[in-house]
Each structure stands twice: as C-alpha cells, then as structure tokens.
Amino acid sequence: MKLKSILTMFYAVFILFSFPQSGYSDVINLKNGDTLTGTVLTLSKGILNFSTPYSKKIEIVKSEIKSLETDQPVRVHLKNGWKIKGKLRPTEEGQYSIRTKSSNQRATIDFEEITSINSSEEKPRPWEGKIHAGGTHQSGNIDRVTFNLGGKGKLKFGKERIELKFLTTYSEENDKITSRNTFGRMQYNHLFTEKWYGLLSMEALNDKFKNLNLRLAVGPGAGYHFWDDDVKSLKLEAGITYFSEDLKSGEDRQFMTGRLAKKFDYKFSEVFSFSNDAIIFPSFEKIGNMILRNEASLESRLLEGWSLNLSHILDYNNDAPAGTGATDSMITFGLQHEF
C-alpha cells in the first residue's frame, strides 16, 4: 500500500507539471476605464494584438491604451532603432521601465517611443552609426589646444555589408603643432552563410609625425562570426594586404603582408558597453616584423542617443620609416551621438 501511494503521488505530480499552464497575467488598462487580463501578442502599425482566456484575439488601438504591464519578456523596438527585450512595467503616466538580461538596472522609456512589440514585420534600419568629438584648451603658463573627431557606421543591404571608421586628431602647444593625423578604414563584406563572409578591406593613414604623406593598405580576406546577440559579438578575420607608403622624406615603399583581425563588442548593461578592434599585419619578407593597430573603447550612456566615449589606441610598427618610433599610444575622450 505504501509503495502504491508513493507511485500514485508521483504520477499526480508528473501529470501536473507535464501539461502547460495557462498563465494569463499581462494587464492592459484602457483610457475608458476597462481593464483586460491576458497575453500581449504583438504591437505593429499602431495596433496591439491581445489574447484572453475567454475570447478570440483582440485588436486595440495603441492611442487608447492608458498603461500595460507584461509578465513575460517582450521584444520592444523604439523609434531611434534601439531594440530591447524585457518585462514592461509602468512607472508613471506614459513612462515604462524595462529590465533586460544584460542589465542589473531598469531602463526608462516613453510609451510614445515604442514602435512595435514582438513584431516580425519590423525591418532593421539599413544604416546605423556613431560620431564622437572631444577637445581641450589650456592657457596661462602654457597655451595648449587638442581636438579629436571620429566615428563609425554600418550599412546593410541583403547579404552585403559596408563598415566605415575614421578618426582625426590635432594638437598644438605654444603655437607649434605637436600632433596631426587622420585615419580611415572601409570594409566590404559579403555573407556566404550566417557565420561566414568574404571581405575587401582598405585603410588609409596620414600622419605628419610618422613621416607619412599617405599609407594605403588594401586586401581581400574571409571572416567568421562566432557570436552575434544582444549582449556580445565576436568576429575573426584573415587575409592578405598590399601596402603602399608615400613618405614625406626617404624612399617610398610597397610590400605585401598577411592580415589578422578581431572585432569584439560586449554590452555590460543598458548603460555601459565595451568594444575592441585589433588588426595585425605580419610581414611576409621579415619574420617577426608587423604593423598593429588596437582600438579599445568604453561607452557610458547619458541620454537617449547620447553617451561618453573613452578610447585607447595603440599603433605599433617595428619596421617604421627612418626617424620615427615603433610605438604610438593615444587616449581620446569625448561626447558621442548615435544615429
């Protein structure tokens, strides 16, 4: 009897947890005073689709909603292109907080900024980018001016991707230029699969104090996308590159190298994010010689679309033109706008 009772209890518990539970706990308060309990399905083109246990799908005009609260995470798209996934909680009239998997804090958004919820029709923006600027001015015992302007962007269409990046810096001390350079990179990617892609990369550098009128590097390669989600992204690339250096003094140079690249992004929260781009060009002619550029950036969000950007850039070339050093290190700090 004892064994039979245990088996009966085990069977009852198994049946209880084997069948899906019909939890309808999303709540919508309408401006006319009605309250609906059920499940938020989608919001698209100003219409919210809502289901309840006692009726078929209900369509509600967004403008008639006073507030809504979701018990399960939903995918929210905002007018500025941001995508957030989490539980919506009303905080005050027209304001909502949402907590994501990558955040220990809640972000506050305006209901009018939400364009869709759980919508498969939402088309991603083909173009997105960031631009930042910073500078200092000091006078008195010393007259010093520094300025930096940079940015990056991505264009997506079908299986094609175009990535752009640039940075220009200038500094002057006691009416004497102490730094002036401009760096730019453009890369074209063609997706073969969701992970693999071919690429053609080109970068250019002008640097008064590196004896460079223009360094141009062009070459093909291939890349693999290991991670690509709301929190992290990692891409590794390999290829070959042709270098052409137009020097301010001395004999111009042309040579071939390999190309190894890493692109890593990590979102600690809705406020803080980190990115690191590293490219190494190992020499084919002299084993051990290389050109390296590493860019590490930390971003701190201030307001919608605005953040602070702190970057460290390391340039290394152990076969640098005569009269120049092998290593350059630079830190930039500025205000950044995302579009």
Topology:
Blueprint: H1 2-18, E1 26-30, E2 35-44, E3 47-52, E4 55-61, E5 65-69, E6 74-78, E7 83-92, E8 95-99, E9 107-110, E10 114-117, E11 127-138, E12 144-157, E13 160-173, E14 176-191, E15 196-207, E16 212-228, E17 232-247, E18 253-267, E19 272-282, E20 290-303, E21 306-317, E22 327-338
Antiparallel strand pairs: 1-2, 1-5, 2-3, 3-4, 6-7, 6-10, 7-8, 8-9, 11-12, 11-22, 12-13, 13-14, 14-15, 15-16, 16-17, 17-18, 18-19, 19-20, 20-21, 21-22
Salient structural properties:
single chain; 339 residues; mainly beta; twelve-stranded antiparallel β-barrel; 22 strands
Protein architecture, described:
The chain is mainly beta and 339 residues long. The protein folds into two domains: 93 residues, SH3 type barrels (Roll), CATH 2.30.30; 212 residues, monomeric porin ompg (Porin, Beta Barrel), CATH 2.40.160.40. It is built from one helix and 22 strands. The longest helix has 17 residues. About 4% of the residues have low confidence.
Determine the CATH superfamily of the largest domain.
monomeric porin ompg
Structural class of the secondary elements? mainly beta
CATH fold description of the largest domain: Porin
Major sheet: 12 strands, antiparallel, barrel
CATH architecture of the largest domain: Beta Barrel
In spatial order, strands of the major sheet run 11-12-13-14-15-16-17-18-19-20-21-22
Number of domains: 2
Count of helical regions = 1
